[in-house]
Amino acid sequence: MAMRIDLEFAKPLSREQRISLHLALAALPKTARVRVIKGGHAVVVMGEALGVDRVRAALQEEGVQAERIRTSLSDEEDLRADEISEDHPDGRERLRPIGR
User: How many independent structural domains does the chain possess?
Assistant: First the structure.
């Protein structure tokens, strides 16, 4: 299921913020394309079933606050796509160390 997430920012992102945010979002699993809109006021993320919570967590790690986050997925589809959501039916993502 293909999706698109639009991020809008109150102030234009600096060059350093654009680069670090671009790399952080491009490194997320299932991300196909990340596009910083000219002027640095918005970012478009396209991929395969990538949830808003995962994108929001990546923004938080980079110390960037988005004013608005919109997705092409319905609320139910977004919830199922994002394993790290507290509301996900299977609970939080479970990680097991390799070799155990």
Answer: 1
